[in-house]
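Dataset card, provenance and construction

Sequences and ligand SMILES were collected as paired inputs. For each pair, a complete structure of the chain with the small molecule in place was predicted and serialized as structure tokens. The example below shows a pair involving ribose-5-phosphate. Curators did not alter the output after generation; any descriptive sentences attached to a record were derived from the structure itself.
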Amino acid sequence: MAHLEKQGHEVTDIGPHVYDADDDYPAFCVETALRVVADEGSRGIVVGGSGNGEQIAANKVPGARAGLAWSVETAKLCREHNHAQLIGVGARMHTAEEAVEIVEAFLATEVSPEERHARRVQQLLDYERTGTPPALPEA
Ligand SMILES: O=C[C@H](O)[C@H](O)[C@H](O)COP(=O)(O)O
């Protein structure tokens, strides 16, 4: 957090503020995603053992797009191609230095201007809003 603040980011720590190996990640991740969706332009980082459950929890919030960022490249791609506002990071999967690089890559990347990526994201948004699945292409 201090590292990101030093870089000029305004950081909110949703918690947990005390380490408890037996606590449950959904509340932290859902709260993070709710805040990110409510604050356009903001980004969220949800951290856990693998990042998997954290990313799944964040994606339950309507409008949230959370990618599992397990490398610098996947961190960039989930922003560029998937317009992710959040990433899940697995604390047990990386060194602290690697995790910082992954988070920095995500924060430094903007969405791709390619129309096809926006089109695909829009299809997901439409599905979320209407409940009607995107049409399968004709065989
Ligand atoms: O996907 C979920 C996260 O990786 C959790 O951090 C993980 O499942 C926690 O596992 P445990 O309770 O065995 O430490």
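Derived descriptions for this record:
The longest strand covers residues 44-48.
The chain has a mean pLDDT of 97.
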